């Protein structure tokens, strides 16, 4: 990773402040903001999983969705997402699908796991692929 600029550090500190506000509100301690190439904050979000009763209410995912709706592909490609922790897999895919060009994070996933171990998860059983001839019909090019 390249060295961070003063602007990067300022926005990253804001993401950490947002994380603290989410924690203070009873949610997970995660915060993010989306910034354009001129350093202007386009949008800010905090984790609201508990408040919203939505396990997907991560700030990175909410900002990726906002960007996909509000920004042109060109504007998204040059925007930077600043976030208090490295995005999880769900958020990383959303960030890519939204076309965001850069992510800067404070804590890595490994650092977060050492500071705050994740709660146990329930294993999921997957079955498939199946029904190829039927399932391919709606996804084939017209």
Describe the structure in your own words.
With 142 residues, the protein is an alpha+beta fold. 43% of the residues lie in helices and 16% in strands. It has a 4-stranded mixed sheet with strand order 2-1-3-4, with helices on both faces. Strand 3, helix 5 (89-98) and strand 4 form a beta-alpha-beta unit. The longest helix has 19 residues, at 6-24. It starts with 5 loop residues before the first helix and ends in a 7-residue tail after the last helix. The model has no long low-confidence stretch (mean pLDDT 95).
Q: Which structural traits does this protein have?
A:
142 residues; alpha+beta; four-stranded mixed sheet; 7 helices; 4 strands; 43% helix
């Amino acid at each position: 990773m390249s060295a961070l600029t003063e602007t990067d550090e300022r926005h990253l500190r804001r993401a950490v402040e947002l994380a603290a506000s989410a924690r203070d509100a009873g949610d997970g301690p995660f915060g993010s903001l989306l910034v354009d190439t001129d350093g202007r904050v386009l949008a800010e979000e905090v984790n609201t999983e508990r408040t919203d009763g939505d396990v997907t209410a991560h700030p990175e995912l909410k900002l990726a969705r906002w960007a996909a709706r509000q920004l042109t592909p060109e504007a998204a490609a040059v925007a930077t997402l600043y976030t208090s922790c490295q995005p999880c897999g769900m958020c990383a895919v959303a960030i890519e699908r939204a076309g965001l060009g850069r992510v800067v994070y404070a804590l890595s996933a490994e650092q977060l796991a050492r500071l705050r171990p994740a709660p146990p998860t329930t294993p999921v059983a997957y079955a498939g692929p199946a029904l190829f001839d039927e399932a391919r019909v709606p996804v084939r090019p017209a």
